[in-house]
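Sequence and fold
=================
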Amino acid sequence: MGLKIGDTAPNFQADTTEGKIDFHEWLGDSWGILYSHPADFTPVCTTEIGRTAQLKDEFAKRNTKVAVVSVDDVKSHNEWKKDVNETQNTSVEFPIIGDEDKKVANLYDMIHENASETATVRSVFFIGPDKKIKATIVYPASTGRNFAEILRVIDSLQLSAKHPVATPADWVPGNDVIIGLGVKDEEIEAKFPKGHKIIKPYLRTTPQPE
């Protein structure tokens, strides 16, 4: 069985392009994203690594650290970084984990044998400051990730961690949110002073807190 939402993200020690890390220690009290690449020097991965670097300030605003794993060694990663920086007009400054023994890939069930027996699929793990897995997204090797969606998921997770709300379909920051079912009607006014709407007894909305 693979890792599930609510499970503790497995810890590991590894060499990376930013030096050796203990994953949990490196995360500290930040949110984290760990995602995988099938291999270095591949076209889709090059654009994804570049896009992550370009979004450095967006991740920092969200107190979120990003680490990437590929089943190649750090020497290969460092050579690949040169291509990423050149072709994507950026500077990669986050850890790319060396995983030639596939230790991390196997810990996080990133190799799906029916897709490939050796290469990782494009897994994304969203990890909270409590080191629990809060969400996952998995793409096949042929589909590049949507980083607007990754940021949107972080925003939703962080909002619901602070307030008893959920985010509706196609929500983006600034839109109304759904009041959690655990909030009683008589509690709404105190908890959500911006106002609210009761559409159905189970569907109550309010402007986004904060």
The mean pLDDT is 93. DSSP finds seven helices and eleven strands in the chain.
